[in-house]
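ok new one. same drill as before - structure tokens go in, u give me an amino acid for every spot. 190 of them this time. try not to just spam alanines like last time pls lmao
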């Protein structure tokens, strides 16, 4: 019988996602700087590049989810052990961040408690206490790309993007506002 460890692939895909997200942050900063400098042609180029990288990130996330579907329980059982043995390749030195899908229920519960929609900061203020037992030490660390942003907040924001694509959150909410959809309400009832 062939022995394999699907957790290694899950760990690698999580690392890949974090690296892609760091690249998106970098391109965002360049775009903001070029916009402030009124170099609109370079700002447009940065916007197009960011859109391509976000699309690529979505594909990598879909692969991670597909892998999780294939080897879900086996990956979950070995995940803690794998992240403690992970070789040091940079940003995630002490472990791996909490997966995006772990944020789904806390985000939806926060939105429901807030009447169905709320400012991002209000949602995140409610999500954090609900995730205390789930978040790992690495989730509280600041991002290398933004020392003022703890990793868990950025992961929650990426979870929000995935939730919009899955129809759990509304895509037509005002900027800075998250809003639960009917599918999100059903998700909470399941």
């Amino acid at each position: 019988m062939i022995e394999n460890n699907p957790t290694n692939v899950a760990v690698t895909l999580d690392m890949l996602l974090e690296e892609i997200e760091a690249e998106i942050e970098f391109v965002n900063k360049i775009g903001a700087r070029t916009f402030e400098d009124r170099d609109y042609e370079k700002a447009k180029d940065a916007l197009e590049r960011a859109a391509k990288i976000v699309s690529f990130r979505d594909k990598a996330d879909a692969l991670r989810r597909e892998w999780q579907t294939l080897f879900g329980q086996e990956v979950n059982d070995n995940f803690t052990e794998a992240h403690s043995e992970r070789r040091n390749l940079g940003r995630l030195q002490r472990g791996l961040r909490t997966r995006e899908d772990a944020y789904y229920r806390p985000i939806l519960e926060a939105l429901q408690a807030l009447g169905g929609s709320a400012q991002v900061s209000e949602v995140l203020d409610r999500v954090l206490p609900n995730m205390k037992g789930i978040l790992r030490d690495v989730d509280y660390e600041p991002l290398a790309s933004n020392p003022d942003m703890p990793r868990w907040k950025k992961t929650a924001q990426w979870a929000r993007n995935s939730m919009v694509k899955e129809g759990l959150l509304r895509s037509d909410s005002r900027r800075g506002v998250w809003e639960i959809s009917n599918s999100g309400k059903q998700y909470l009832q399941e």
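DSSP finds six helices and two strands in the chain. and btw The first helix runs from residue 6 to 36.
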